[in-house]
């Protein structure tokens, strides 16, 4: 059976809830969009219920506006349950179907646990890791309804906080320059008015400060830290470390 597929995305970022991706890698996605790459976001849940939101429709409208601000081509919301998200076979296949359909070169996912925050983040990491693997497995038409296998070339993890940067088994870390896109990242987060009302403006100070610390550690005004699943190689040491 031949399945008609859409134009591929270059990069897909996965979050447990709407606003995770914006907080973690919104600047990177906005910069990629500026550079002409096709970028998508997958939210595993709709994020509802939450204390300050009127309901699902409002939260999804905020997510669409945030995606528009970032310049992404697609935003997909799966029907997995908020607050009780678990790494399950069904969840893995649901996300792997998205990868097979949109065929990204790179997948970005949440890095590890977020102590004192939602346990859904840890489950989302495990679901994403498994879906990257499931995406490339052949001889599995009964689960994927003719969607062809797709091998994702690179997987990266992004942090949702400062407390979980030393526990991942990643091969190295690097910082993406988001100097030009930091204002876009912050604007996209502000689109979630139900989640970040006036009383939570400290969130923006925290996010911006974190980006500036990471960026300045790498010689940029602002940056986002990413952790690769594979070792990154250098062919020209001088040009890589000392660009003209």
Notes on the protein architecture:
With 244 residues, the protein is an alpha/beta fold. The chain has one domain (11-241): Rossmann fold (3-Layer(aba) Sandwich). The chain has 8 helices and 7 strands, in the order βαβαβαβααββααβα. The protein has helices at residues 20-34, 56-70, 89-102, 120-135, 141-144, 182-190, 202-217, 237-241; strands at residues 11-15, 39-43, 74-77, 106-110, 154-158, 174-177, 223-228. Helix 2 links the parallel strand 2 (39-43) and strand 3. Helix 2 (56-70) packs antiparallel against helix 6, helix 3 crosses helix 4 and helix 6 packs antiparallel against helix 7. The chain is globular and about 50 Å long.
CATH topology: Rossmann fold
The topology string of helices and strands comes to EHEHEHEHHEEHHEH
Strand order, main sheet: write it out. 3-2-1-4-5-7-6
Radius of gyration: 18 Å
Number of domains: 1
Helix content: 25-40%
Strand content: 5-15%
Distance from N terminus to C terminus (CA atoms, Å) equals: 52 Å
Query: Which CATH class is shown?
Result: Alpha Beta
Structural class: alpha/beta
Q: What is the β-strand count?
A: 7
Largest sheet: 7 strands, mixed
Name given to the CATH architecture: 3-Layer(aba) Sandwich
CATH superfamily, by name, is LmbE-like
Could you write a compact summary of the structure shown?
The protein has 244 residues and is an alpha/beta fold.
Distinctive features:
14% strand; 8 helices; Rossmann fold; alpha/beta; 244 residues; 7-stranded mixed beta sheet
List the helices and strands and how they pair.
Layout: E1 11-15, H1 20-34, E2 39-43, H2 56-70, E3 74-77, H3 89-102, E4 106-110, H4 120-135, H5 141-144, E5 154-158, E6 174-177, H6 182-190, H7 202-217, E7 223-228, H8 237-241
Helix pairs in contact: 1-6, 2-6, 3-4, 6-7
